[in-house]
User: What shape does this take?
Amino acid sequence: SGSRVAGLGALATWDTRNSAYSPDAGSFAEISSTVYSSSILGDYHFTVHTFDIRDYRSVSHSTVIASQAYLRISSGDVPIRNLSLLGGSDLMRGYWKGRFADENLFALQTEVRQFLFWRLGVVAFSGVAQVADKVHSFGLADFHWACGAGLRIMVQKKDKLNLRIDYGFGENSSGLYVILKEAF
Assistant: This one.
C-alpha cells in the first residue's frame, strides 16, 4: 500500500584523501545521524546513525592498501525499505545488495590495489560483515565473508578515474560488478 519516510539529520565529514575517485593516501570519515518522524510528513518514527571510516596507504610506488569500517545502527519502527542492506557493488562484493538485511549492520573490508602498466591495474579484496536486529546481538559466529579480485582500467588519468571490473565470492553466492569508480 506504500509508505512515506521523512527525516532530518546531521552529517559530519573529514576527508584527507588525495583523490576522490582512487585515493592512494589519506583518510575519510563520515558520521551521520537522522531522525525520521511521522511529525514531519512520514509514516514511521525511527533513527539511523552511520559511521564510515576509510584509510588508504601506499606501501610502494604502485601498491595501495585500502580499508573500510562501516557501522549502521537503526532503532525504532524501521520500515523494510530502510533496513541496513549487506551486499552490492560497494559493500561486501559477492552478495547481491540486500542478501542479508536487518536494522543494524557492521562491516570491515580491505583491498590491495596494484598498478601494472599503462592504465591497467588489478585488485584483490576481502571483507566480513553481519546484520542484526539489535547492536548487542552482533557476534563473532555470525559474520559473513566475501572475497574476490578485479581489473582496473584508468579511463581518466587526470582524476585517476577507474573502470572497475570485479568478481566477488561469498557463502554460496557470487557476483560480477562493472562500475565507473572504486568500491570505497
